[in-house]
Amino acid sequence: MLKTQLLHPEILAALGGAGHGSKVLIADGNFPFGTGANLEAKRVYLNLAPGLLTVTDVLRVLVEAMPIEAAEVMQPPAGEPPIFVEFRALLPNMELKKLGRFEFYGTAREKDTALVIATGEQRIYANILLTIGVVMP
């Protein structure tokens, strides 16, 4: 048994194989998991049912498990989704880089995306792409 909050073996393995600069996508239930991200990225499906698990549930655990250097979000054409407030609370002092929908898909499809986590999140535009930082000695 591990002492960390993150216990999921596939996520731990994917993070262990990733490194500084690799990206982790936590995606809502509407995200095109098969075509909207790097086809070679490890996919972990945590979308048990609508609303289970949420993007913020997963983010809360990942924040404690890995260094995060940057965060990119999918920005709708008008307004800011309420979930961005929760992202900022979980990632204090970090700017959310806002990308349009198709720009976000393009960025998620790049080869640096190592892990895609599918959630049952029902809120729209609730996708976040995290860049793994470095652990200083």
What attributes does this structure have?
137 residues, alpha/beta, six-stranded mixed β-sheet, 4 helices, globular
Descriptive overview:
With 137 residues, this protein is α/β, with parallel strands linked by helices. It is built from 4 helices and 6 strands, in the order H-E-E-H-E-H-E-H-E-E. The protein has a 6-stranded mixed beta sheet. Strand 3, helix 3 and strand 4 form a beta-alpha-beta unit. The chain starts with 8 loop residues before the first helix and ends in a 5-residue tail after the last strand. 28% of the residues are buried.
**How many beta-strand segments?**
6
Overall outline: globular
Estimate the strand proportion. 15-25%
* Average predicted confidence as pLDDT: 96
Distance between the termini: 26 Å
| Strand arrangement in the largest pleated sheet | 2-5-1-6-3-4
- Structural class by SSE content: alpha/beta
Largest sheet: 6 strands, mixed
Radius of gyration: 14 Å
Number of helices: 4
In terms of per-residue confidence, which ranges show pLDDT below 50 for 5 or more consecutive residues?
none
The H/E string reads: HEEHEHEHEE
Binned, the helix content reads 25-40%
